[in-house]
Design goal:
It is a single chain. By secondary structure, the protein is α/β, with parallel strands linked by helices. The protein is built from 18 helices and 12 strands. The strands form 2 sheets. The chain has a 6-stranded mixed sheet with strand order 1-12-2-3-4-5. A 6-stranded mixed sheet has the order 6-7-8-9-11-10. β8, α17 and β9 form a beta-alpha-beta unit. α2 crosses α3 and α5 packs antiparallel against α10. It is elongated.
């Protein structure tokens, strides 16, 4: 019991951990905190996993069938979508760092001296000492121009401050009007006369003042001092703001860039997952394809050469696949004109009361030697005894640890599924095959491939099984391979050949990816023919 609880805890941890990861990448990383999109995405990240759990457990809990159907489609479809969202998002983690960092590095390489260029562009006119040609037009007159020139020439900043202050106190000077006239002679500026006032002797005191002079502006409203358009500080600011990656990167990848990359990758993941699930759903709803396999049997008489057995497994009639799906399967089987139909388990996911009407089309199977049925593990979850009686009413013959002789010259045997052991109704090979004539070829119907080793011991020539669904949704075949000797197709074990069908339906999500549903027509071949 403790082991079961630990397994359940581990599964739930992985389940909700995966949902947290999807929420982080599809909601948190691409939306703004407190926004409507963030709230809606967070609510969906809470509701959808609970809805999927409800869809998985509603049948076992005896929930009314209409409610099971209402829960099944959104709950199961989210499970399928969730699988491929996680896989695609994990794949994007390989390229996410490159997309975030490489463009920023490329931008820095393209502009190696952007800051220096911006500073040089702002101070060059003043450094040249050409007040009429620089960006100081409309500034605070000659005082500001001289101050800028002093800074550019390397003059101490303390000497520039009193000059600017002195210039601000001389409104009657022609330069203070705000329109700088080009000097006609080199000695036109009166700056030396202005600077020789007795107040300039207080320069040492002014130099100790930490704050720059505060200018209210020229008479025409143009600001002076550090805020003036011609000052180095304001000249460099536009150059910095003009950088295309300003505010995005800084010292490293910025929030805006990371969010943009996250949105691109999230959109890609959603598109890939949605497209994959849509294609897989279409694969199931259009019905199974017909697959043909020829199996030579050493002991098969010539009279049975070419005998055709239509193998139908894992139909899984239930809340998502109903009567229409059963009819598609019947039409596909009858189109092959088989000699015998073998239904090898997992016909239903639900009770006879709920699914009896959905199974009615199965009564229209047409085969020369009839239709046969063995239980699968899902029959025991749904009431095996009731379904055995139901399929008998539909014209199929249940083989419950028993065999029959087919007129063409081989034995057909069937055993109960291994899940029946929990209900006192498991497989019994001795009863089904113990006293038979081993000189005759034997074909065994058994739902799960794992019993092939028992089939080898009892001299079975061919075992027909299902159960694995071929993995149903990639990469499910790798998990199925851990629990089954063969996931799909034909393989040999000693003198016994095992054929595993991918199945005609789907369990849980009505989605198949990389393992399309099929009905297999197994054609027996005699080596004497």
């Amino acid at each position: 019991m403790l082991v079961v609880l630990l397994v359940v805890a581990l599964v739930l941890t992985v389940y909700f951990g995966a949902h947290w990861y999807v929420w982080r990448r599809l909601v948190r990383d691409v939306t703004r905190p407190g926004g409507a999109a963030r709230r809606v995405g967070t609510a969906a990240a809470v509701v959808l996993p609970l809805l999927s759990l409800a869809a998985l457990t509603s049948g076992r809990l005896g929930v009314p069938f209409p409610l099971q159907q209402a829960l099944a489609w959104p709950g199961f479809m989210w499970l399928a979508l969730m699988l491929y969202l996680v896989l695609t998002l994990l794949a994007t983690e390989l390229v996410r760092p490159l997309l975030v960092r490489l463009p920023a590095r490329g931008a820095r390489r393209a502009r190696p001296g952007a800051g220096a260029e911006a500073g040089a562009a702002g101070t060059e006119p003043a450094a040249a000492g050409r007040p009429a040609a620089g960006p100081v037009a409309g500034a605070a007159g000659a005082g500001s121009a001289v101050a800028a020139g002093s800074v550019a020439a390397g003059t101490a900043p303390a000497a520039a401050a009193p000059v600017a202050a002195t210039a601000a106190k001389a409104p009657e000077a022609p330069e203070a009007v705000g329109t700088l006239k080009p000097p006609k002679t080199p000695d036109t500026p009166k700056t030396p006369d202005t600077r020789t006032t007795p107040d300039t002797r207080e320069t040492p005191d002014t130099r100790e003042t930490p704050e720059p002079p505060k200018a209210t502006g020229t008479p025409d409203g143009t600001p002076e001092g550090p805020d003036a358009p011609g000052s180095p500080e304001t000249s460099a600011a536009p150059a910095t703001a003009a950088r295309p990656d300003a505010g995005l990167t800084g010292a490293g990848p910025g929030m805006a860039r990371r969010r943009f990359v996250s949105r691109v990758l999230a959109g890609t993941a959603v598109a890939v997952a949605a497209g994959t699930v849509a294609g897989g759903t279409h694969s199931v709803l259009r019905g199974p394809s017909v697959k043909r396999v020829t199996v030579p049997l050493a002991k098969l008489p010539r009279s049975a050469h070419g005998y055709r057995i239509a193998v139908v497994s894992d139909v899984h009639l239930g809340p998502t696949l109903g009567r229409a799906h059963a009819q598609r399967i019947v039409d596909a089987v009858n189109s092959t004109q088989p000699d015998l139909v073998a239904v090898v388990g997992d016909l239903v996911d639900g009770s006879v009361e709920n699914l009896g009407p959905a199974a009615e089309p199965l009564a229209r199977f047409r085969a020369r030697h009839g239709s046969f049925f063995v239980t699968g593990n899902h029959e025991y979850f749904s009431g095996a005894e009731q379904w055995v009686d139901e399929v008998r009413d539909l014209g199929m013959r249940p083989l419950r640890n028993e065999r029959v002789e087919i007129a063409s010259g081989f034995d057909l045997a069937g055993v109960n599924d291994v899940a029946g052991e929990n209900y006192g109704d498991g497989p019994d090979f001795a009863r089904a095959l113990g006293d038979r004539d081993r000189a005759r070829a034997a074909v065994l119907l058994a739902h799960q491939p794992v019993v092939v080793h028992d089939a080898v011991r009892y001299g079975v020539d061919l075992q027909l099984s299902g159960h694995t669904h071929g993995g149903q949704m990639w990469p499910g075949e790798f998990l199925a391979g851990l629990a089954n000797p063969t996931v799909e197709g034909l393989e040999r074990y000693g003198d016994t050949q095992l054929y595993v069908s991918r199945g005609a339906g789907a369990w849980g999500p009505p989605v198949r990816v990389g393992a399309p549903s099929d009905i297999t027509v197994v054609q027996l071949a005699s080596r004497d023919a």
